[in-house]
């Protein structure tokens, strides 16, 4: 028999062990630059700038493909600066968010977008040998030799940024 006032139901579990508060394990201030995540963000900013410059320096023979590449490069560059600024200026300590998960999602999303941009830029580069016929007598290549080299460099930089 149970003592008086006791029930056969166990007490409800304490929710604290199951839902720990969000904590920042990435440092704030200039210390973020010493972490792997900070170094990757700095490389994304650097290579994103190079991609932006390289794609813009060609005559953009296929605007639909290279327009997406430019969109990814500019957007990821801007978001990388914002994400890095959150840690540099200490806003990460004021925002209750799981920053480890946010960092993982951010880098995963930029990888997916940069890899897609790499495929489109590589497809544009691969069209170098195909002639474009402007009229019945003249044959001109889609990319000149100089633009072909720039497009290769942009493809490599996009791949480095995504990895």
Automatic annotation (TrEMBL):
Cytoplasm recorded as keyword: no
UniProt domain MARVEL: residue ranges: 32-163
One Gene Ontology CC term in the entry: membrane
Keywords, comma-separated and alphabetical: Membrane, Transmembrane, Transmembrane helix
Pfam families linked: MARVEL (PF01284)
Chief site of localization: membrane
Membrane disposition: Multi-pass membrane protein
InterPro entries: MAL (IPR013295), Marvel (IPR008253), MARVEL-CKLF_proteins (IPR050578)
Subcellular location: Membrane
One GO term (biological process): myelination
Ranges that cross the membrane: 36-56, 68-92, 104-123
Recorded GO MF terms: structural constituent of myelin sheath
Protein name: MAL2 protein
Organism: Piprites chloris
């Amino acid at each position: 028999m149970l003592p008086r006032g006791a029930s056969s139901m166990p007490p409800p579990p304490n929710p604290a062990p199951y839902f720990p508060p969000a904590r920042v394990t990435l440092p704030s201030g200039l210390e973020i630059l010493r972490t792997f995540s900070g170094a990757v963000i700095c490389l994304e900013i650097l290579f994103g700038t190079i991609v932006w410059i390289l794609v813009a320096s060609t005559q953009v023979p296929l605007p639909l493909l290279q327009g997406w590449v430019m969109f990814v490069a500019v957007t990821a560059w801007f978001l990388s600066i914002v994400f890095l600024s959150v840690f540099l200026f200490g806003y990460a300590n004021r925002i209750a968010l799981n920053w480890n998960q946010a960092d993982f999602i951010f880098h995963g999303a930029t990888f997916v977008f940069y890899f897609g941009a790499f495929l489109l830029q590589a497809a544009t580069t691969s069209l170098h040998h195909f002639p474009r016929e402007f009229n019945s007598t003249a044959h001109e290549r889609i990319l000149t030799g100089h633009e072909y080299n720039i497009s290769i460099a942009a493809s490599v930089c996009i791949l480095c940024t995504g990895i």
